[in-house]
Design a protein that fits this description.
The chain has 360 residues and is α+β, with helices and mostly antiparallel strands. The chain is built from 10 helices and 14 strands.
């Protein structure tokens, strides 16, 4: 079977290289984001701010109270940190080293993995649809990792060893963890477990490694624009100790202080649709700082690309009718990737506008 293409993005300069070249005081105009809410620049007061819920995986498996806590986190926050997740620490550490080494490759090596015309996978940025568009202060390395036949032959199979083997093992662990969490979510929602299993078991997994260089004017740029994730479930690995993830809750931005050896999980648009809006995807963004780079990797897990997306039948009742229309999974991705990454606008297109619903 042929590798899949879900979208494309225009080629842009490498920000990591740009950050080394620019003067210490100014940022090129194309990266200035004066249209945005200014990012919260992390300081020592961050610890006193509200923090997202923390869920213990070991307790989650057997403890109804922990399941209720996760259910509440998914309904109210769309985000939580997962501790005691069971993924081997030494594997995670090897993957972190491999990601850092990948971004530190010389440019001639990186070019082998650079985005090709009409493609989005590889090094570069996503969602760049015009030459006038403002850019993020960050680079990504993005690729489809599962199913294996969907991999681009010049990306995953060509990664340097031992990173390739470590990433292969990590990919399998992420799938296993995603399926466990999705199963527990189905239980918390009183959704038929086979509906979640059938939709996600042969699902699509993507990885996006992020490199946000230090910036002389961090308050004027954004590492990654405010958005919701298209997918079902995101599992974020913080590669180094720098904070930068911020989520929008009740109209304000909250910085996430990552816990050691934890993953940050969040609900994507597709899971919002599957749960018929009970769990909601939450806008988030990445801020940068003037001191040092921040590196992270998101593993995205989605339903099967050949499948169809819609509210789970067991969650649709006369009292809670379907709030989203059905669409092919691949078609949803293609629509999402064809536009600029802005807020939560795309999932809203999927809503069924039931006039007068409030009065029924």
């Amino acid at each position: 079977m042929e590798p899949v293409s879900l979208g494309k993005s225009l080629a842009v300069p490498c920000v990591q290289d740009l950050a080394k070249e620019i003067s210490q005081t100014t940022v090129p105009a194309r990266y200035l984001r004066l249209d945005q809410d200014p990012p919260i620049i992390i300081n020592n007061d961050a610890a006193s701010l509200t923090q997202i819920p923390v869920i213990d995986m070991q307790r989650l498996i057997s403890d109804e109270l922990e399941l209720d806590k996760m259910n509440h986190a998914c309904r109210e926050w769309g985000f939580f940190q997962l501790i005691n997740h069971g993924v081997d620490d030494s594997l995670v550490d090897k993957v972190k080293v491999g990601i850092q080494e990948l971004f530190n490759l010389p440019m001639e090596e990186k070019n082998k993995y650079w985005q090709r015309p009409e493609e989005m996978e590889g090094f570069g940025q996503a969602f760049v649809v015009s030459e006038e568009q403002k850019l993020d202060w960050g680079d990504m390395f993005y690729m489809i990792t599962l199913p294996e036949h969907a991999r681009k032959p010049y990306l995953f199979p060509e990664l340097p060893q031992p990173f390739r083997d470590n990433l292969e093992a990590y990919s399998a662990e992420m799938k296993k963890l995603a399926m466990k969490i999705l199963h527990l979510m189905a239980k918390a929602l009183r959704m038929k477990p086979e509906e979640m299993k059938d939709m996600f078991e042969e699902g699509c997994q993507m990885m996006r490694m992020n490199y946000y260089p230090p910036c002389p004017q961090p308050e004027l740029v954004i590492g990654l624009n405010s958005h919701t994730d298209a997918i079902g479930l995101t599992i974020l690995l913080q590669v180094n100790e720098m904070e930068g993830l911020q989520i929008r809750k009740s109209g304000r931005w909250i910085p996430v202080e990552p816990l050691p050896n934890a993953f940050v999980l969040n609900i994507g648009d597709m899971l919002e649709i599957v749960t018929n809006g009970i769990y909601r995807s939450t806008e988030h963004r990445a801020a940068v700082n003037s001191v040092r780079e921040r590196i992270s990797m998101s593993t995205f897990y989605s339903p099967n690309l050949d499948g169809e997306l819609g509210p789970a039948p067991s969650l649709v009742t006369p009292e809670t009718p379907a709030a989203y229309r059905r669409i092919g999974v691949a078609d949803f991705f293609k629509g999402y990737f064809s536009r600029e990454l802005v807020g939560k606008s795309y999932v809203d297109v999927m809503r069924i506008q039931n006039g007068g619903d409030e009065n029924n």
